[in-house]
Design goal:
By secondary structure, the protein is mostly helical. It is 68% helix and 5% strand. The chain has seven helices and four strands, in the order ααβααββαβαα. Strands 1-4 form a two-stranded antiparallel sheet. A two-stranded antiparallel sheet has the order 2-3. Helix 2 packs antiparallel against helix 3 (63-84). It is rod-shaped. Residues 154-194 form the NB-ARC domain. It comes from Brassica napus. Residues 23-64 form a coiled coil. Keywords: Coiled coil, Plant defense.
Length: 200
């Protein structure tokens, strides 16, 4: 029977000490939370400033940057609230921080501080590395347009094509009134070029 009591006492002591550590380490954890929160804010501000500069250049934030910033944004209110409640929670402690006037409330607060501290540390360590925070936005792909057989442009198409095949010709200008078939001619040249590149 003594062994059962001893085991029960050890289990109860272990349980109590596990819970009490949140109270015993509360002040240290609050100090650490304040420090990592300051570092997290500085990192977030620096990253956002860098991102704003890149966005002015027409770049878009990388997804990993967006995810990291959203994690920071989500945790910051919780950190702020915990640090705001710091004074009233510390006042509950007595006997040099080893006891609380309301054990259960202080335990929950201490556990919350500890878990938030770990989460902030995790976010800090997961900050994307590297100087690249944004990338160019690619334009949407170009769709092939069906070109119909043209009437009256065959000779012009052959002339334009033979000019383009000469080594001396680098640019071919096409001009004229609206509606005479400039765009259609270019579509035909493009299609012919595609067919030729497939054969080559």
């Amino acid at each position: 029977m003594g062994n059962v009591l001893s085991n029960g006492f050890q289990a109860a002591t272990s349980f109590f000490l596990e819970k009490a550590k949140y109270i015993l380490e509360l002040e240290d954890n609050l100090e650490a939370l304040q420090e990592v929160a300051r570092r997290l804010k500085a990192m977030k501000d620096d990253l956002q400033n860098q991102l704003e500069m890149e966005e002015r250049k027409g770049l878009r934030a990388l997804e990993e940057i967006k995810v990291w910033l959203s994690e920071v944004k989500a945790i910051q209110p919780k950190v702020t609230k915990l640090l705001e409640d710091r004074t009233s929670e510390i006042e509950r402690l007595s006997m040099y921080g080893y006891c609380s006037s309301n054990f259960l409330l202080t335990y929950h607060y201490g556990k919350n501080v500890f878990e938030t501290l770990e989460k902030v540390r995790s976010i800090l360590s997961s900050k994307p590395c590297g100087e690249v925070v944004a990338r160019r936005i690619l334009p949407p792909g170009v769709n092939d347009i069906d070109t119909q057989r043209t009437v009256g442009l065959e000779k012009t198409l052959e002339d334009a094509w033979s000019l383009l095949m000469e080594k001396e010709v680098g640019i071919l200008g096409i001009y004229g009134m609206g509606g005479i078939g400039k765009t259609t001619l270019l579509k035909q040249i493009n299609e012919k070029s595609k067919r030729r590149s497939v054969k080559d």
